[in-house]
Amino acid sequence: MRWLRLVRAELRKLTTTKLPWGFLAVLVVIAGLDAAVVLWGTDMDGSKTFISTADDQQSLMAFAANAMIGTGLFGAIAVAREFGHNTVVPTFLTSPRRYRAVLAQLTAVMIAGGLLGLLGETLVIGAVAGALPFADYSFMVSAGAVAQLLAASTWAGAAGAVLGAGLGALVRNIGGAVTAAVVLLFIVPPLAVRLVNDAASWIPDTLTRVLGGVGDQVSVPAALAALAAWALIPAALGLLAVQRRDVV
Fold first, then answer.
1. What integer pLDDT is reported at residue 49 of this predicted model?
2. Alpha-carbon span 168 to 29, nearest angstrom
3. Distance (Å, rounded) from C-alpha 34 to C-alpha 187?
4. How far apart are CA 193 and CA 27, in angstroms?
5. pLDDT of 189
6. Quick count: other Cβ atoms within 10 Å of Cβ 136?
7. Number of neighbours of residue 29 by Cβ within 10 angstroms
8. 3-state secondary structure the chain
9. What digits encode the pLDDT tens for the residues 19-70?
10. What is the pLDDT of residues 189-233, one digit of tens each?
């Protein structure tokens, strides 16, 4: 079977289940919470300086870190459930060269993750922009900064999905894959920072802030490459595991 057909088949799997809709609902809730923060949130002194400048508003709307975490869980569930329910077996029978099937699955999940990241950022920007006039503030972020936020969340969403998909292929159990994603995205980064001081510039939270224009610890090209490495290493391990292990 042609590889592009495999990708289309994997995209069809994702879009004909309830999984994306569940994550979409979460994105809507997050956007609503951001709007609520703008409307009713205050600083400790009762002021609203956290939305008083363009930089403050851009920082509030930076969604890339959340996009990576959310799509990391999305990718882990999407791939692990295929092994958990043995629905991956027909795929491997259709495409005996497993690496082609796995690469198609990774590509489909990456596309879905990027779209979820883009949609999440769009919803957040729309919610904040819509709420600002009710808080007696105007939207100050430039079109260039908005484009940067959207691009950062798209990249982070795609990277997170590939990371999660790799863990799903490696662990092959939904609970285990989700746990592995949580450990890798929530627990490992702060531990790495405590063990190695320079690691603070290379954890996902820092890298996504750089891509969103609200951090300058490393250059943007370096952040793009490092975030890709966070995704590709688990994906490569998952691909290797699928190649070497029995399917069931």
1. 86
2. 26
3. 25
4. 29
5. 94
6. 7
7. 11
8. CCHHHHHHHHHHHHHCCCHHHHHHHHHHHHHHHHHHHHHHCCCCCCCCHHHCCHHHHHHHHCCHHHHHHHHHHHHHHHHHHHHHCCCHHHHHHHCCCHHHHHHHHHHHHHHHHHHHHHHHHHHHHHHHHHHHHHHCCCCCCCHHHHHHHHHHHHHHHHHHHHHHHHHHHHHCCHHHHHHHHHHHHHHHHHHHHHHCHHHHHHCHHHHHHHHCCCCCCCCHHHHHHHHHHHHHHHHHHHHHHHHHCCCC
9. 889 999 999 999 999 999 999 988 877 778 889 999 999 999 999 999 999 9
10. 999 998 888 899 999 999 999 999 998 999 999 999 999 999 999
Asked if 20 contacts 14 with a C-beta cutoff of 8 angstroms, the reply is yes
Tokens of 197: 């001081």
What six digits make up the tokens of 103? 């690469």
Q: If phi over 0 gives left and psi between -120 and 50 gives alpha, with beta otherwise, what is residue 172?
A: left
CA angle 124, 130, 136 (to 5 degrees): 125
Token pair recorded at residue 78: 């999407």
